[in-house]
Amino acid sequence: MSQKDAEVLVLRPAIVATVIEDGAVLLNLDTNDFYEVNSSGWTILQLFEGGVTLDEVKERCRQWGAAADDAAVATFIDVLVKDVLVARSEWPAATADITPQAVWSTPTIQKAPEALQRIVRSPFDPTLPLAE
Amino acid sequence: MEGSRDIPDGVDGVVHCGPVTLAVSAATAALRQRTQAVLETFGARWNAPGPFIHVRLHGTTDAAVLGEGRYLRCANTMVDKTASGLIATCRSGAFAVYDAAHRAWDLHIRTLSSAASPGRLDTPAAAARPQPPVWTGDSVEDLLELVLTTGWREAGWIPLHAGAVLTARRCALLTAPAKGGKTTLTVALLHRGWRTLGDDKALITLRADGSPEVRGLTSRFNIAPRTGTWFPELGDLASRPPISPWSDKRRVCITDVWQNCFADTATPTHIVLIQRSEERRATRIEGLKTTDVLSALLRQTVIPADAIAARTILDVLARTARSLRGVRFEIGDDAYSHPEALDALDERLE
Lengths: 132, 350
What we know:
The complex is a heterodimer. Chain A is an alpha+beta fold. Helices cover 27% and strands 22% of the residues of chain A. By secondary structure, chain B is α+β, with helices and mostly antiparallel strands. Chain B has 2 domains: 142 residues, no CATH class; 191 residues, 3-Layer(aba) Sandwich (Rossmann fold), CATH 3.40.50.
């Protein structure tokens, strides 16, 4: 077990999510990037809501049906870390008792190619402000 | 502004803007007129207007320091959260304070003379730089839009900067970048017998059964004069005054042109992403993936950097996206001069 895998990671408060039929949509309020995750991806993400170690995530995924050392799980977690959707927590892990809502499948996370506008024209108009 | 028996004490008038009702008082006649002009463009009266939102406009010579915009960053206005609600500060020096518990806004608008030298530009280096003109009127519009969008979200409705057209069985949301052709396509479809909920302002929510509902806010369209050359029933648009010093568009009450074309409510079935084509007479249609539909919807609304507000918006739009079929529609500038140009779109929206 590496030290990194024993660190507790938590979903950052700037990340908001809504559940849809086959997964969830995430929005990063700091960057205005948004993502779609499938059902297994959302199951993994829920582990991070209370704080969890990567070792625990991998173990849970194995219990849910992922292969040992599943590359897709590692890739999924890499995106969460690289895009700073999760961050290190000083608090102990408080892993929730999550039950997958669907048969286990390869977790996927798809980032929209373009973030939403961070500066908008007006409180009603979300388009890019034009230069004066 | 409407006079009514139920006007609260000290209020100049009551204005219905969809699901919210504003009780407005203004310190001067000029502020009152400007407020009325802005609110007219959101002025649909729904059957069950909500509780009053108090809006008090004050003239001021004080200039607010521009905030950080941690809640919302607009071109000319920054919005930040406070312990009791929100504070908005404008580049003109105007500012607004929202007391959420009392549903009351105080808008402090600088007069043109005081706005000519905003207090925030008090360093010699800043004062030496050329500055864009300060238009107090812009601040009134921005701040009233903030009042309305906040009130609509609190009432469970998400503002959409989109047009909406419908027939008996279908309703398409029309989306485009600024000046991207929403109004012209809306008019073209009205010409073909469709109806509308409006050309660029709509509200959307989820019904109790989870299905989306979209409603319109105004039957007043802002139409480019050139549109009249393709659709003569619009009359001589060029003879009407421009809507502002910054826009060549002309205001038209669309029900004066096509009676009974304005509908109250609909269930959206499609979304059309309009794109200008470099080929002047061309039209091209292709389907959108669900991801693109969600992206198109999210780009038509303003999402504050506030977890509770953002989650509600995300929830409504993500569920709506799942129920919509999307198409990308490219159209050249001259395509509207050919009546058959929209046949394929009409067919695709079946």
